[in-house]
Design goal:
By secondary structure, this protein is of the alpha/beta class. The chain contains 16 helices and 12 strands. Among the domains are: 137 residues, Rossmann fold (3-Layer(aba) Sandwich); 158 residues, Rossmann fold. The strands form 2 sheets. A 7-stranded mixed beta sheet has the order 9-8-7-6-10-11-12, with helices on both faces. Strands 1-2-4-3-5 form a 5-stranded mixed beta sheet. Helix 8 crosses helix 9. The structure holds nicotinamide-adenine-dinucleotide. The site of nicotinamide-adenine-dinucleotide (NAD) has 24 residues, from helix 9.
Length: 436
């Protein structure tokens, strides 16, 4: 696909990220009794909107950005999924991300379908005012496509609570009504939930803890390296360090920082806020090291956490992985071909569609709070998050044992079973012919 086609989403070729994501379905269909109707429906996104966002820049010039919003499947409820601002965003990526959201929401039994959105832009080159105008322009572009009962966006890469607040304000100014449930991940003062910012990282740690318990592993004996030190990666690393895991490396888009004695995660985070990652170490004697960006992937650690972007591990670098366990916090960080190679080597992958559900679960809690007007304390949010993750993860771990499949296959089976049952309940050929 040419770069131009990729950028504007007009190519007729099979899109790469989506094709890779969907290629996992055949394996699931071989294990589940899925109707032909449901298979056909899951092969295509429900709807895809591409639009232009004209933005007045600070120097007076006009720039037109490309935006997308996709509803992959809405059988179980309104679409749900984040909005990404990144130079590489394109129709294929957004569609794949909305496909994963469909599986994920069903896998943890949320009453949602899957959606996703994005803008092709480099937020690092935009001023705060330009970013606000772009965020508000995004909402003007998708206005009819979103709503508390239609599609509820949330933060993703390079979008945060402030961006969600601007977007909610723009939506409600157009609607001339207060509809806080139109978007989640908002600032608490605008109807956001306590605990939403930390939820993805902390939820992933809860899933890792369940895995560790089942394998009788003690956190204090486990070394961890984290690729991606943004919202999800930082909150994971902070909470993991607090529970005794030894976080020996973290990385961002520029470099990896490493200390064999363990990093002081909070100090590394403070350094990042001031400009760049520095290897602040726990042991006073160790000075730590700055390594190449991708060195994090090949470190000899017990747990490799992928919290950056999709396709971090692919066919060309999968052989370098030394960690026996991978925790996927990013969406789609291991390509399907690399996944098969990891399985051959008995490397355990705790998959994105289970491990990163903490964010969407607390987004669901935020939506409930917005719709009932009953706002919960932080303790109640974290208690209910833990309860939901434990209940659903236990079902998936058990399914993986019963069906003798890996955790990714078990999570997909759980999600696909729920989605396709709902499709059949709405009326499929089987339903009409009585051929159950
Ligand atoms: P973010 O923008 O806050 O952080 C992304 C981080 O990845 C940054 O530190 C960036 O420097 C780093 N990065 C980018 N390219 C990299 C590379 N090649 N190598 C190493 N680091 C790199 O984004 P986030 O919200 O933390 O999201 C990270 C991932 O988690 C994404 O895949 C996102 O879809 C997924 N996710 C996030 C949430 C959420 O609630 N934030 C929920 C579910 C899934």
């Amino acid at each position: 696909m040419s770069a131009e086609d990729k950028a504007n989403g007009t190519s007729t070729e099979v899109p790469a990220v989506l094709a890779d994501a969907q290629s996992r379905l055949e394996n699931i269909y071989q294990r589940l009794d899925v109707s032909d109707d449901a298979r056909q429906r899951l092969a295509h996104p429900h709807r895809l909107l591409q639009f232009s966002i004209p933005v007045r820049m600070d120097d007076g010039s006009l720039r037109v950005f490309q935006g997308w919003r996709v509803h992959y499947d809405i059988t179980r409820g309104p679409a749900k999924g984040g909005i990404r601002f990144h130079p590489d965003v394109n129709a294929d990526e957004v569609t794949a991300l909305s496909f994963w959201m469909s599986i994920k929401c069903a896998a943890v039994d949320l009453p949602y379908g899957g959606g996703k959105g994005g803008v092709q832009c480099n937020p690092k080159e935009l001023s705060r005012m330009e970013l606000e105008r772009l965020s508000r322009g995004y909402i003007r572009g998708v206005y009819e496509f979103v709503g508390p009962d239609i599609d509820i966006p949330a933060p993703d890469v390079n979008t945060d609570a402030t961006v969600m607040g601007w977007m909610e304000d723009e939506h409600n100014s157009i609607a001339r009504r207060q509809l806080p449930g139109v978007i989640t991940g908002k600032p608490v003062g605008l109807g956001g939930s306590q605990g939403r910012v930390e939820a993805t990282g902390e939820g992933a740690l809860q899933v890792l803890n369940i895995w560790a318990d089942k394998h009788k592993k003690k956190p204090k004996k486990l070394t961890v390296a984290v690729q991606g030190f943004g919202n999800a990666g930082y909150h994971f690393a902070r909470a993991a360090e607090a529970q005794g895991y030894q976080v020996v490396a973290v990385s961002d888009s520029r470099c990896t920082v490493y200390s064999a004695d363990g990093l002081d995660v909070e100090a590394v985070h403070e350094g990042k806020k001031k400009g760049s990652l520095k290897p602040h170490c726990k042991g006073k004697k160790d000075q730590g090291k700055i390594l190449e960006r991708d060195d994090v992937l090949a470190l000899d650690v017990d747990i490799l956490v992928l919290a950056a972007l999709e396709n971090a591990i692919h066919e060309d670098n999968v052989a370098d992985v030394k960690a026996p366990v991978i925790l996927e916090i990013a969406n789609g960080p291991v390509s399907s071909k690399a996944d098969a190679k990891l399985e051959e080597r008995n490397i355990t992958v705790i998959p994105d569609v289970l491990a990163n559900t903490g964010g969407v679960i607390v987004s669901y809690f935020e939506w409930i709070q917005n719709r009932t007007g009953d706002y919960w304390a932080a303790d109640k949010v974290s208690e209910r998050l833990e309860q939901r993750i434990r209940e659903q993860a236990e079902l998936i771990f058990q399914l993986s044992i019963d069906e003798k499949v890996n955790l990714r296959t078990a999570t997909y089976m759980q999600g696909i079973r729920r989605i396709t049952e709902a499709m059949d309940n709405r009326g499929s050929q089987r339903y009409f012919t009585g051929d159950q």
